[in-house]
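Run: sequence + FE2/S2 (inorganic) cluster -> complex structure.
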Amino acid sequence: MTVGFMLNGEEVITQSDANTRLSAILRGTFGLLETKSGCLIGQCGACSVIFNGKLVKSCLVPAFRADRSEIITIEGFARSDEYGDIIRGFEKAGVETCGYCHTGKVLTVESILARQMAQARSEILAAFWGIRCRCTEPESLVEAVLSSADMRQRRIYGRSS
Ligand code: FES
Ligand code: FES
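>> structure
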């Protein structure tokens, strides 16, 4: 089938089997290799993308559902000021990411900040439930989100929250 969607701000079109995973299309057809191919069962978050404004695991999205959607991958998001807020927030909190979990962690933080729920620690921890990071303690993730929120406030309003 023909599948067309907005990808990182550009209209794209491709041919695909209807049930091919979106993660495979992003990697194989468009060369977006930071959308990782991890567990392929929705449990690690390495394939995360922003899909129609929501954080979604692209290994669980068949091609037919991607048709006429809007997708932002970590490569597209990395060009934004919002990405910079999160990277600076991670640095301030002393939280590192590696090739395995960078995409999932960063896009999860963005989904939290976009929903303006960065104050509730329990909600922050719940948001990371579907991300498999072997090296960061949950409390450090909370600090990373709070620091990222602070960086965003400073960039937009010139002050902390
Ligand atoms: S590869 Fe999609 S959640 Fe693990
Ligand atoms: S920093 Fe490597 S798995 Fe999370």
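>> summary
The pocket of FE2/S2 (inorganic) cluster (ligand 1) is lined by residues 37-40, 42-47, 57, 59 (CB under 6 Å). The chain has two domains: 2-73, 81-157.
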